[in-house]
């Protein structure tokens, strides 16, 4: 998506540790007109994929997950982050290590929202090494739900998570793919 690349170039900032800051339009402040287009683009890509629900992890994926769900005409499920393991029998959980925060948290979602009749689209703002998506797949598997694929706003392709998923045969669509951010200079995969 050309517009996503333009936004990254004009408004993104490369921080130490291979972190791209896009607080201006995707994380802290939301450019709703732009993100609506992002949701529509995701819906265009997955229109014929039989998606019944969108799923993401709080908090930064929620905006685009909601807008993609709206464009697809399906509900959006938000997986919660807990600092410690939740022992409730009513939730599916997965341990996920956070790329940006360097900690591990327990992702949890009520079982009722993950049904064997569901076919999920995973949506997230970033894909780096892929831990968040691996965790979401574990949660979907516990509920016996299918995975239609993943839609990512920004894939840092040089961190390998996306290509590992594709090698497994999983459909991963990223609206911008970054091959390098060395010295603060962003190189996109064409
Ligand atoms: P992964 O689990 O694929 O390693 O990392 C994906 C998650 O980490 C995303 O949900 C996102 O919130 C966060 N993340 C990873 N890299 C970045 C980055 O460069 N910038 C921001 N803002 N978040 C990131």
Descriptive report:
It is a single chain. The protein is of the alpha/beta class and 190 residues long. The chain has a single domain, classed as 3-Layer(aba) Sandwich (Rossmann fold), CATH 3.40.50. 29% of the residues lie in helices and 33% in strands. It has five helices and ten strands, in the order αββαβαββββαβαββ. β9 and β10 form a beta hairpin. α2 packs across α3. The N and C termini lie close together (11 Å). The relative contact order is 0.17. The mean pLDDT is 95. The structure holds guanosine-5'-monophosphate (5GP). Guanosine-5'-monophosphate binds next to β2, β7 and α4.
Radius of gyration: 16 Å
Number of separate structural domains: 1
What fraction of the residues are assigned to beta strands by DSSP? Answer: 25-35%
List cofactors, ions and other ligands: guanosine-5'-monophosphate
Q: What's the shape?
A: globular
Q: Count the strands?
A: 10
Q: Give the name of the CATH architecture.
A: 3-Layer(aba) Sandwich
Overall SS class: alpha/beta
Task: Specify the number of helices.
Answer: 5
Question: How would you describe this structure in keywords?
Answer:
190 residues, binds guanosine-5'-monophosphate, 10 strands, 5 helices, two-stranded antiparallel ribbon, eight-stranded mixed β-sheet, alpha/beta, Rossmann fold
